[in-house]
Amino acid sequence: MVSLPSIDPIVDLYNAISIRYAVPVGGENLAAYVGTPRLTIADGTELFDTMKDGSLAQESPEQGEVVWCDDKGVTCRRWNWRQGVRTRLSSEAKQMWFILESLPAMPLDALHEAGYQLAEGLHLMMPGVEIHTKLVGFGLG
What pTM value is reported for the model? Predict the structure, then answer.
């Protein structure tokens, strides 16, 4: 049996949901955002902070790549696959934002179930947590 390394209790929770439901799940420290998060297509000039060889580094997404960003730059690349350093989530964050991404082949009920399981885990870790959900569509065609 293969296991994932433990990163942080919150990150471990959403990684487990991701694996169980085969859906990309990411978590962000919403307080670290500058402006409103938005899903967009990169022009290739945006900045993305990452770690390379143990040091903070900046790179740019490829032109046409789907990215999450804010007013300061890219927060997550390749939809929800490569999260940046600036908005990295830990259990110390006071405002958390989670993204569960699905393709049309995933039944909507399964996506809702994954979200429910994430919310349940958060309630167990942080009694009294307030959770708001929103379903967002993004058309690329």
Answer: 0.82
